[in-house]
Amino acid sequence: KQEVTQIPAALSVPEGENLVLNCSFTDSAIYNLQWFRQDPGKGLTSLLLIQSSQREQTSGRLNASLDKSSGRSTLYIAASQPGDSATYLCAVNGYKLSFGAGTTVTVRA
Amino acid sequence: GAVVSQHPSWVICKSGTSVKIECRSLDFQATTMFWYRQFPKQSLMLMATSNEGSKATYEQGVEKDKFLINHASLTLSTLTVTSAHPEDSSFYICSATPGDTGLAGPTGYEQYFGPGTRLTVT
Predict the structure, then answer these.
(1) Which of A81, A109, B35, B76 has CA atoms 20 to 30 A from the CA of B60?
(2) Is B7 on the interface with A (CB under 8 A)?
């Protein structure tokens, strides 16, 4: 059974600081890994998808890395803004999509 | 592209009644759709996987007679919560993919998520 862990559970930073969110998973037999953003009471917004053959993906201020052999992915958000405040979910796609519990980020103005 | 809608966005019903939630892929054909539920402050848990034209596959612990799933077309899946009780109150989210899970599991296609439906049972 795939176990997905996200550390830290919560993070508060001042505006402008870079964010580093960690995701680890126990079964390296995956097709891909996705990072999502979820605002309170809302659905999921897909941020980045990394196929198992890739090492990283970038989109604007976001960069996600994947080390499948060690079961780790990291999401970097550069120059954080108050609008980045949300919960960030990591999801690993093996036989099914397994989600971590998320990291709740607060960016202070 | 790749937009998934859900209807209704929120619903309040009385205990004992049934509620139907629709999930639609608006600009692609969804061979496979997934239903998740999310309790407050918790992550998403997969309830079931449905392929168009066949019976849904339910995760362990999910009552198939209580959560009826129908995937009658390539753009529509419905989840019916039968005889709803307060403990069924949750956030239900669907996702859709053009990929076919087949028997060997998903092929790595990206899943596109709907905006979710907040169900409150009084």
Answers:
(1) B76
(2) no
